[in-house]
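Example for tutorial group B:
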């Protein structure tokens, strides 16, 4: 900051500041972001053109403006931000706002779920003077799913029954009609949701699916490998009981130690004593499906190398099967 600007700051009265006035979004306006897979250009479409009047400090001062968006009630504690230097207009692309929502790990916005949010303009002239904010405008924003296409398995097996936002998911790895993945089911009823309002239920015959069909029923609790073909309208489920086995475990290479599912973490886990030796993971007390780690990097491969336990002790072992592209594990010493 120059000496001249510093002198100007000593002469201004913060009580006389006039805040920016935001335009471009109105109260309770609803936006549904759409990813059109048939057109790359759809992601380059403009979501909103925001303009605002410049903050008035009683004299011309270099001002930096930031657009802030956060969930209603959060008091902008962890906002999405767009910095716009000294300009008082910004065009925000569909892809840009959705990517920012998708990457907010500490302030998660579930895809395809309407979020009640609010927006404001933050104006700053100096670190020594409190920012000036525009009035807050509340509106609604629904992000699209930025990852692979998914089916959300909602039902009575969930801690919050039928909750779309917290549902376990099946993935379409090739972004086509085929979906697959591991889902932990209890004695429950469930459906396959494409969106909160569009879901497949049971078809007229076993192993088939139908839009708006009755709920699927599951009787035996456990982890299921599920494959779905939405074009041929078929579903297949196979019960996979996962366990830890190996020379480091109490049962050695002869007896599995079964794992249980943690609904909060969406991972399988087990706590047990391990020696400084080796483990693997396998299904249904057999070697047909078994996971190891070829590169000792925490990711899994079918039939992969034995996993070394670094030192003897009591461990909680985690197995994350939520993403069929990348199974992973973690050994946490207690």
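The residue assignment follows.
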């Amino acid at each position: 900051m120059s000496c001249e600007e510093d002198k100007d700051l000593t002469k201004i009265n913060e009580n006389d500041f006039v805040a920016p006035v935001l335009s471009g979004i109105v109260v309770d306006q609803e936006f549904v972001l759409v990813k059109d897979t048939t057109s790359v250009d759809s992601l380059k479409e403009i979501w909103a053109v925001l303009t605002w009047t410049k903050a008035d400090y009683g004299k011309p001062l270099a001002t930096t403006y930031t657009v802030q968006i956060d969930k209603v009630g959060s008091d902008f504690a962890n906002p999405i931000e767009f910095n716009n230097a000294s300009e008082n207009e910004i065009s925000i692309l569909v892809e840009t706002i959705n990517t920012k929502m998708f990457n907010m790990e500490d302030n998660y916005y579930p895809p395809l779920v309407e979020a009640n949010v609010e927006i404001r303009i933050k104006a700053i002239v100096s670190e020594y003077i409190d920012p000036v904010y525009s009035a807050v405008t509340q509106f609604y924003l629904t992000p699209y799913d930025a990852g692979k296409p998914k089916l959300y398995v909602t039902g009575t097996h969930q801690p919050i029954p039928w909750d779309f936002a917290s549902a376990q998911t099946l993935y379409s790895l090739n972004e086509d009609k085929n979906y697959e993945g591991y889902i932990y089911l209890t004695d429950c009823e469930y459906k396959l949701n494409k969106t909160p309002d569009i879901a497949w239920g049971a078809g007229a015959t076993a192993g088939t699916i139908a839009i708006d069909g009755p709920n699927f029923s599951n009787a035996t609790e456990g982890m299921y490998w599920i494959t779905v073909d939405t074009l041929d309208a078929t579903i297949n489920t196979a019960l996979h009981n996962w366990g830890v086995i190996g020379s480091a475990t109490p049962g050695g290479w002869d007896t599995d130690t079964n794992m249980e599912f943690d609904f909060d973490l969406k991972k399988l886990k087990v706590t047990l004593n391990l020696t400084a030796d080796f483990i693997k993971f396998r299904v249904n007390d057999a070697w047909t499906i078994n996971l190891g780690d070829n590169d000792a990097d925490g990711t899994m491969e079918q039939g992969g190398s034995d996993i070394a336990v670094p030192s003897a002790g009591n461990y909680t072992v985690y197995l994350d099967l939520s993403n069929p592209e990348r199974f992973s594990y973690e050994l946490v010493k207690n």
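The mean pLDDT is 91. Compare this with the pattern of hydrophobic and polar residues in the output above.
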